[in-house]
Design brief:
- This protein has a single domain, classed as Rossmann fold (3-Layer(aba) Sandwich), CATH 3.40.50.150.
- Helices cover 42% and strands 21% of the residues.
- The protein has 10 helices and 9 strands.
- The chain is globular, with a radius of gyration of 18 Å.
- The N terminus is likely disordered.
- It is an enzyme of class 2 (transferase).
- This is Class I SAM-dependent methyltransferase.
Length: 312
Amino acid sequence: MTTTLDDTATTDGTATVGTSAADIEFHYDFGNDFYALWLDETLSYSAAVWDGIDPAEPDTTSLPRAQRAKLDLHLDLAGAAPGAGLRLLDVGCGWGGLLARAVGTGRAAEATGLTLSRAQQAHVRSLGLPGVDVRLESWDGHRPERPYDGIVSVGAFEHFATADLDAAARLAAYRAYFERCHGWLRPGARMSLQTIAYDGVLGGDGPVGAFVAAEIFPGAVLPRLGEIVLASDPYFAVVLVRASAEDYARTLGAWSARLLRARAEAERLVGPDGYRRYRRYLRACEVTFLRGAATLYRIGFRRRDEPLRPAA
C-alpha cells in the first residue's frame, strides 16, 4: 500500500512531516534533570568524535572533550570557522550545545535553533546566549527572514520520516528537507548532517528495533545512505562522508556507565521502570552499532548554485 506524507501539527500550529511533536516530547521531555545525569556538560545527545582520546581516560573528562570535538567538526563542515561570525541554523538543536559552542567561539554571530521539545527550548533560553534565537518549530514550518551562511543538523534526520511511509514517500520527505535547506542558504554555503542509518540490516525489524520504536523513539525511522544521496543530489554536492559506528558505540557505553553510577538519583527522578528502560535502551543500541546493524554518518555538503534538473 502506498502511504502519503504525514503532516502533523506542531505545538506552534505549523505542520510537520515526520515524527510528531507529541512523539518528540514523549522522549525529549522526560526531564532535563534526568538527561543531565548521564550526558556530558554540553548536554550533547548524539555520538561524539573520539579520535585521539585514550580509552583509559575517565568519561568525566573524555566525554566532554569528545563531544566538543564533534561540535567543532560540524561547525567546520558548515563553514563556521572560529571568528567567522556567520549566520547559522541548527535544525534539531537539542539543549543548545552546538549553539553555545558556535557563538562562544565567534563562529556564529547569529544562530537560530529549531526544536519540537518545549523542555529543550526552555533550557536553551535559560542560557541567555547572545545572538541566539531558539524556536519551537519544525523544519518545514521554518520561514527565515534572510538567508543563512551555514546549516547544521545533528541527530534530527532520523525523525524526518516515519516508519509507516513506503520507500518513495520517505525519499520525498528527505528531498523536501534538502530542497528547503537549499532555499535557506546563500550561494556557495555549506551544510553539515549527522545521522544514524541502517547498514547491515534492511530495516528495524527484530526485538531491538521493536523495543526502541515502542518504548523510546515512537514514530522515528532510520534512513539508508543511498536515500540521503538521492535526496540531496539535486541541491547539494557531497564534500565529505564519514562513517563511524565505533564512535556511537563508545558514546553509548559512556552514557550507560554514567547512568549506572547515577542510578539512585535517576530512579528518584523517573522511577525504577524509567531507569531500567533507559539502561536497556542504551545497552541495546550499543550492541546494534557493535554488530554493524546500524552505523553513523557525518556528511558535509556544498550548496549547488542551481538545482540539477532532469533532462527533458
